[in-house]
Amino acid sequence: MRALSFLLNLGAAGAWIAASPFRPPLGAALRPTAMMASKGDSVSFAKYEGLGNDFILIDDRDKSEPSLTPEQSERLCDRNFCVGGDGVIFALKSPEGDDEYDFTMRIYNSDGSEPEMCGNGIRCLAQFLKDLGEDAKSYRIHTLAGPIVPVMNSDGTVTVDMGEPELIGPNVPTTLEPNFEGESVVEQTIECESGKEWKVSAVSMGNPHAIIFVDDLEKDIDFERDGPELESHPAFPAKTNVEFVQVLSPTHLKMKVWERGAGPTLACGTGTCALVVAAIRAGKIPRNPEGGSELGTRVTLPGGDLFIEWREENNRVYMTGPATLSFQGSALLK
Hints:
Layout: E1 4-8, H1 10-19, E2 42-50, E3 53-60, H2 70-76, E4 87-93, E5 103-109, H3 119-131, E6 141-143, E7 146-152, E8 158-163, E9 185-191, E10 197-204, E11 208-213, H4 223-231, E12 241-249, E13 252-259, E14 263-265, H5 269-281, E15 297-301, E16 304-310, E17 317-321, E18 324-333
């Protein structure tokens, strides 16, 4: 697996972060990669994280397709022998002849698979674009899950219009029997090979999610076993992200996530959106609670807090959270 080596501007990055909350433009430091990188090429990157969900960002704004293959991206994500990350995100140009978008986002997971979208990832992409000099209040991003619009806030956070949740079971997709209004799946029984039974709610935010509510996140699950078993359960033909959720109050949820193609991560944006929708539909929390944040329901993940609002007026889900530059450097493909 020792397929790439890299040099990092760690000293410079540390100085930037310590000196000022504002980031310097990355444009001068990051060179666009070749149309398709090959052995011996040096690939410039920037490393970002959203609540510890960390990504390698590649500037491919002059391209319509990623400059790295899924296999190269998988090796780049190796935490022992290379840069390390939960995935590689490519900032691509907008679709040819389509004025609806500013840029395109593609992402490869750490196992080389390609998800439709990533909530924490798109916040990191938005901050990356801003740091590259594409300074705007918002960006219209084309993704495999459809159009997504991140908005840059004055406090340094990013609010993302994540679109409407998909609630029809077969469209998630899941083969679990619909048991709720509109052919949806809410706390439906599922049995795993281990013999354990769960009550699962299925929601898609452009990618599939299986949400399970528990009384105690530390006592009620065997995370390393239950996560992958549910991820690859036959009831989810495209596999699924798995969120275990504990209700702390009507305005506060806590979760652990096992991501499809990445395993345990410190945060999952689409999963956080999906679990808030699931909690409301299952009657676990109110849709418009009194005394809550104006940003919506607080969700505590292993890496920190996200705020999620599911608006009644347009049925769209909005996510607010941070995205932070960690360092930048170059990786040599070997």
